[in-house]
Amino acid sequence: MILENGVVRTLDHSMPAARALAIAGERIAGAVGTHETALASPDVVDLGGRCVVPGLTDSHVHFPTWSIAQRQVRLEGAATIEEALDRVRSAAGDVQPGRWLRGLGWRSGDWSPATEPTREQLDAVTGDIPTALMARDYHSLWLNSEALARADGDLAVAGGVVEVDERGQPTGVLREESAWRFRDVYIETPDDEYVEAMRAGIRLANSRGVTCVHDKDGWLGSLRLFQRLREEAGLTLRVWQSLPHDMLDELEAIDFRSGLGDDFLRLGYLKAFMDGTLGSQTARMLDGSGVEITSRAELEEIVRRGAAIGWPVAVHAIGDRANRDALDAFEATRDEWAPRGLRPRIEHAQCLAPEDLPRFAELGVAASVQFSHAPSDRDLADRFWADKTDGAYAFRSLLESGAVVANGSDAPIEELEPLAGIRAGVRRTIDDRPAWHPEQTLGVEQALEATCVTPSWLSGDERRRGKLLPGYLADLVVLSTDPLDDLDGCEVVATMVAGRWVYNPPPWD
Ligand SMILES: [Zn+2]
Predict the structure, then answer these.
(1) What span, in angstroms and rounded, lies between the C-alpha atoms of 79 and 376?
(2) 430-484 pLDDT per residue, tens
(3) How remote is the CA of residue 270 from the centroid of ligand 1, in Å?
(4) pLDDT tens digits for 338-387?
(5) CA distance 311 to 259
(6) How far is the CA of 12 from the centre of ligand 1 (A)?
(7) Which residues, including other chains, have CB under 8 Å from residue 296's CB and lie 6 or more apart?
(8) How do beta strands 2-4 and 405-407 pair?
């Protein structure tokens, strides 16, 4: 197949642009002019002046959670708690008997007047339908009385917070480990429901130019769910799968190494958490505030054990203290992971002390960030991190320091939509305000590299994917405009994975 009459952005510096591209089977054959004569009767696709870029990767996705979130009551953007409650009231009417009412996306910091949610407010609109509403950052859970009753008082857990009222009774809000344990133990979602939602989720992701995801929901059973999808009809999305670090015992027992799998579904990396989040005010800060989920010493142990059986570690770190502890742990264990070629990463790297910023490049630890978080979090960051925002979401500084920077959405926290992420990285605003910390805005090419090229390096695929070069897998996106000239008008026209159109095959008019 030859794609011609457009602009091909290879994202390789040796030949950044071409007029046409030849594809043979599941791979790129080369730029036209060199290889097309080798093809018997090429299928020619007229790009009509459109642009081709490598397939987009979302480097931080909770894929099953995002897929299922497409079907829950959404509370994003509610300006008051009443508005949030109104949405819950209308959703309550659709819940089948015996089922849970689930929702997500609330953030009490968005509501005015300022208030914290309670179970009584929820009871008033849900009655006895068990109801669980996850906060936008997934670190707080708002429950009604019927839901709370399921736990029969079993709410407290190490690393968790149970909010209580003046009488010492739970308010209905759980945070961190308490929230996650409640969700895992007391709210059930059958596999069939996940698989159904993910089938639709993969189609939606393909329509947004996504050809690969780095999934973070290993703890929830992503591997099992993706395997089911692959067995059913094959995947049209490549998956670099994480597993929770507390599976190390099992992995060691059978000497299970990272990298096992095939071109579509491969394991992956270990996931750990240092701290909470900005929105829940549980990010671990150098001023002593926040919640510690994993200590520096514990992370060192995880990294060492992982390295011994070939697993890189991805660790969530938001606050400046959490990031320092994580960098310290990677530094202390460097002799064990670096010679094995492992590629560790810090997820989010949101708030960095100035002296820690260059350490990503020095140590060879990648920053797996979310461009879209900067403009979405700007008001919260200005409020909670007022004197520290110079080192917050410092994407350009990280890149200029020589760090490896990969972009993701953290969907469902932000929408799984890489073009929106690229725009957020380039503009650092998503409304009519000027750019937030404009010194950190990125060039379009930098943002594209962080979305196409770097994620492939993280999964060890830098010689097979992420660029449009001969021999590379033919994962690509046709865009309506060349994003380097017109990012505003740029939309996904079609998506190809392994040489097959998975969204909107040509011809296009
Ligand atoms: Zn995440």
Answers:
(1) 15
(2) 999 999 999 999 999 999 999 999 999 999 999 999 999 999 999 999 999 999 9
(3) 13
(4) 999 999 999 999 999 999 999 999 999 999 999 999 999 999 999 999 99
(5) 9
(6) 29
(7) 325, 326, 328, 329
(8) unpaired
Q: Residues of the chain with pLDDT > 90: what percent?
A: 91
Measure 16 CA to ligand 1 centroid, in angstroms: 32
What six digits make up the tokens of 70?
């497409």
Give me ligand 1 centre to Cα 139, in Å. 10
Compute, in angstroms, the gap from residue 313 CA to the centroid of ligand 1: 14
Beta bridge partner(s), residue 54: 476
CA of 413 to the centre of ligand 1 (A): 8
Nearest to 356 by CA among 313, 321, 404: 321
Strand pairing category for 170-175 and 160-164: antiparallel
pLDDT tens-digit profile of 165-220? 999 999 999 999 999 999 989 997 889 889 999 999 999 999 999 999 999 999 99
Taking the centre of ligand 1 as the mean of its atom positions, its distance from the CA of residue 471, in whole angstroms, is 33
Q: How far is the CA of 97 from the centre of ligand 1 (A)?
A: 32
Task: Pick 61 or 188 by higher pLDDT.
Answer: 61
Give the length of the chain: 509
Please indicate, yes or no, whether the overall pTM of this predicted structure exceeds 0.85. Answer: yes
* DSSP assignment letter at 468: -
Q: How far is the CA of 227 from the centre of ligand 1 (A)?
A: 21
Centroid of ligand 1 to alpha carbon of 466 (angstroms):
22
**Distance between CA atoms of residues 287 and 317, nearest Å:** 16
65 Cα to the center of ligand 1, angstroms: 10
User: Ligand 1 centre and the CA of 408: distance in Å?
Assistant: 9
